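Escalated from tier 1: RRO holo job.
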Amino acid sequence: MIILASLKTTLGDYRFDNVFMNASGVHCETAAELDEVAASPAGTLVTKTGTLQPRSGNPEPRFAVLELGTINSMGLPNQGVDYYLAYAEQFQAQHPEQPIFLSVAGMQPSDFPVLAQKIQDSGFTGLTEFNLSCPNVPGKPQIAYDLATTAEILTAIFTAFKKPAGVKLPPYFDLAQFDQVAAILNRYPLTFINSINSRGNGLWIDPETDTTTIRPKGGFGGIGGQYAKPVALANVRAFRQRLRADIGIIGTGGVTTGRDAYELILCGANLVSLGSVLATEGVGAFSRLTTELKAEMAKKGYSRVDEFRGQLNTL
Ligand code: RRO
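Tier 2 regenerated the structure:
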C-alpha cells in the first residue's frame, strides 16, 4: 500500500505546508539567504535574531564544523530589527498565505518592550520569537536561566505586545527546572516556545595544535547537531507535558535525518527547525529531510503528523 504522507502542520491559528523551517541564525542573516529558504520545500522561515541596532558580532573564526555537529560563537551578528521587519512585511505582502517568524532579542532586558512595541506598531502579521537564550555575547548571561528576569521580561513584553509570540529557550537539564520554567511560561499568552537553542558554552579542541577551534570567549561556544539531539528530545517532551495545551512547540536540536524529525514530533513538536544540518548541507537539507520524514511516516503507517505528534511510548 502506498501512503502519501502530508507534512502539513499548525501552530496557534497558523497553518504550514511543511513541518520544516530553518533555526534562527542559520541561513537567515540576509534577504538573499532568507529568499533561498523561502524557495525551498521548508514550510516557513525565521529571520536571524535582530537587535535594536545592527551588530557585526564576535571575532572570527566563530563557527566550526565538528565530528557530530557544530560549535558557534557568532555573537549576534545581524542587520538590525528594522531590516528583518522590512523583509517580513515585504514577504507577507508577496506571500499572504505563508506566515513567517521574526526573531528578536534585547542586548539588555529593557530592550525587549521596545522591540515588542516596534513590532506591535508595524504591519507584521506573522509570529515573533523573542530569543531569551543566546549563549555567545561576552558578558551577557543566557536570560532564560534567570527565571526572575525571564518573568520580568515576559511581563514587559506582553504589556505592549498583542500579536502571536513565542520564546526561544536554552536547554534545561533538571526536572525541577522544567517545572519552574513551565509554571512561569504558562502565566503568559504565548503561542509557542522554541526548544532548544544550542547547548551553551561547550569547548572543542584541535588535537593537532591543542588549540580551541573558535576564537571568541576563549573558545567556548554553543554546541549543535547530533550532540544536541537527546537534550532537544527531552526538552520538547518535558515542556509538552507541562505547558498549556494551546502553547505549541518548535522542536530544534540535532535533526540530521527524517527519523530525528519524527522523534521530535513524537515528543510533541508542531514544527521542526534545522540548524547545524542546514549550515553544513545547505537548503538541500529541506528536500532530503522532507523525503526521509515522509518515508518514516509511511513505514509506520501514518499519513499526517498529528496522528503521531506527542504519541511517544514509555515503558
Ligand atoms: O549569534 C549567536 O551567537 C547565536 C545566537 Br543569537 C543564538 O541564539 N544561538 C546561538 O547558538 N548563537
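The mean pLDDT is 97.
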